[in-house]
Amino acid sequence: MINRLSFTFEDEKTQKKAFKAIEKEQQSIGYYALPDQDITPLLKYCDSISDTIDTIAVIGIGGSSLGAKAVYEFLKPLNGLTRKLYFFESTDPINITNLLSHIEFSKTHFLVISKSGTTVETFSIYKYIYSLQSDPTAYTFITDPDSPLETYAKEINSTVLHLPHNVGGRFSVLSTVGLVPLALCGIEIQALLNGAKEVKESFFYDGYLKDTLLKKATFYAKNHTQYNINCIFAYSETLKYFCEWYVQLWGESLGKHQRHSAFHVGLTPIGLIGPEDQHSFLQLIMEGTRDKSVTFIKIEDFHDNITIPDITLPHLEGLDTLNNLPFSKLINMQCDSVLESLEAQDDIPIDTIILPSVDENTIGSLLYYYELLTSLVGELIDVNTYNQPGVEAGKIILKKKLNQKER
């Protein structure tokens, strides 16, 4: 699963210390337990939504939407999803108007997601939609217990679902936040959790992923000043929104003051999609500053066998080498070619993740893999992985501006 990154640094003492810290974190950080949860209550809730509903709309931002969107967009190209899923996650008026043009209110159920219950972006959008659809049965609210949002939802007699204890937004995709909208669209959420559980058990019970993740995290931590940019180069359009989720997870978790110093640290995340970005950003990786590591993600089985036709085009006979080639093989050949070109540079750290197929188990595994990797790197670079004071600072200023507006 990994190549050059594995063998650059090995520090068994550091790795053992990090592993013990992560083991201990399971007692206080809620996301670790999510693969083992009983989803019976969630499925029962989903069954209560009328069959006349053909669209689910999530009103939420950041961790309240990015994870579910990553899974949905990964699986959407496959047949079998029972409902459409839209995400209202921006206060851009053009975006809001455009999304609403795709929705029929009588056939749409809205999930309003806010951990705190007071997210400005979420409730500005909710207020607007509520002015157009005021039926309380059209809404389900997902929030922390006893939040202002729960109080409001109960007052208007809407359904309330809770987030599990101590699960931060960017780690919440395998909780109510992600599982409910995905299950409502026909996605097998138990398979999603099973994939995550395989990674969890491999890591915590001495499977091959324990060594993989510890070595990879150690490399990132020990080289975070030189290789301070981490690029995912995913060779499938289905992973575009996974890359967005990763950017939030990595950036918001690792860009911090260190706990025991005044230093600012972090690894800058960049999400790239092949082959399109190999015609642009690859130039910067190949010949630019040596401050970037690259993780290639490729898919073994695309579940699609379309093939380039056996056609000869006048004056373009040199391209007949493409004839009869499946697109799934071509895109992986492109990935392998770029990977080999970077391997030849010797000073660009690279590794590869191979996904067996496009299904729930696979994306569940990948999500949990990156959550564990994030926690390990956070521990090793000595930051609080689970807070976000830099994000909160902007929220405080915005609320002050809004309060001044009322005067």
Automatic annotation (TrEMBL):
Domain of life: Bacteria
Active site (record annotation): E252, H279, K395
SUPFAM superfamilies: SIS domain
Enzyme class, broadest EC rank: isomerase
Gene3D superfamilies recorded: Glucose-6-phosphate isomerase like protein, domain 1
UniProt catalytic activity: alpha-D-glucose 6-phosphate = beta-D-fructose 6-phosphate
Pfam families: PGI (PF00342)
InterPro entries in the cross-refs: G6P_Isomerase, Phosphoglucose_isomerase_CS, SIS_dom_sf, SIS_PGI_1, SIS_PGI_2
Gene Ontology MF term list: glucose-6-phosphate isomerase activity
Cellular location(s): Cytoplasm
Entry's EC annotation: 5.3.1.9
Keywords assigned: Cytoplasm, Gluconeogenesis, Glycolysis, Isomerase
Pathway assigned to this chain's UniProt record: Carbohydrate biosynthesis; gluconeogenesis; Carbohydrate degradation; glycolysis; D-glyceraldehyde 3-phosphate and glycerone phosphate from D-glucose: step 2/4
Role this protein plays: Catalyzes the reversible isomerization of glucose-6-phosphate to fructose-6-phosphate.
Family matches, as NCBIfam families: PRK03868.1
HAMAP family given in the database record: G6P_isomerase (MF_00473)
Sequence similarity: Belongs to the GPI family.
Stated name of the protein: Glucose-6-phosphate isomerase
